[in-house]
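FW: tagging you since you asked about this chain on Friday. Here's the raw sequence from the shared folder, copied in full. Didn't touch anything.
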Amino acid sequence: MPPRERDVEFMANGIHVVIVPSWWPSPERPLHGVFFPDFARAMAEAGVRVGVVTPDLVGARFWRETSARWRTRVEWEAVDGVPVVRVRGRHTSLGRPSIHMRAYRRRLEIGLSAYAERCGSPDVLHAMAALPAGWACTHLGGALASRVLITEHTGPFALLLRPSGAEKMTLSALSRAVEVVAVSANLKTEMQVAGVTRPIGVVGNLVADAFQPGPPPEAPRAGNAQAQFHVAFVGRLTVEKGLRELIAAAQLLAKQPEPRFAWHFVGTGPMESELRAAMTRLDAESVFHGYQDSAGVASILRSSHALVLPSYGENYPLAIC
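HL: got it, structure written out here
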């Protein structure tokens, strides 16, 4: 049954779905999986009974700034009335995917138990990505492991096939799930090339209402040396997002007398210092907006002449949508 028809069936039957995200916003990483709460809202608005259970494993690089403790804690939250169980605690996998997967599964079991006690047992687990959520859901003990839908978001898909051991876990999760959906046709092709032989549906990501198209700002006029062309980048400030290539492009554009370019970076990440230094060397106007909520991102995009996305791999880039 195609995924969209199955969604209609879920709504008609009043099925109880628990979303299990591989990423979810946290105090340490507020942009991590920021679009998954939109899934929960949309399902609830469509009439689906929905909840979220998110294992929150706080890695070593955040220990200096985190309030998380070693002892796992169950925390209750809500997204516009949708119950969210966060199972939070410090963790280190020592670089081994198998340790991370099993720790994630243990916390998922704790979260599902707490959720069932208060909200009842779900009919379906909707895992967002094969690793870690899909593997953990399909390798639970009990009947829920046989009622798992996986929506794959990871791009490029090759990221799930390394390091050692990850490929086997990825393919195992995808083979056990009742249904598998990719968020783009390109991702579906990547999955098939990687050896996924089962049927894969294609359903695009949701786009928040805040991101409605509007009139672009007035373009700079030729001959006006003070005119600025505003360019925005939205996403994690990391190498795989092609930001070194963006720096190289900015260097070429800086050699032109006009227009002048103003660069807007929305997001955080390990390349922020390198980006700031590069923009200072170019004497280019740049604004680092840091983390922004949906309304903030939408406002910056509306005031920009162009969005740049030099990423090495995207499946359904929400920055463009």
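FW: The radius of gyration is 21 Å.
HL: agreed, and The domain at 207-321 is CATH 3.40.50.2000 (Rossmann fold).
FW: great, closing this out.
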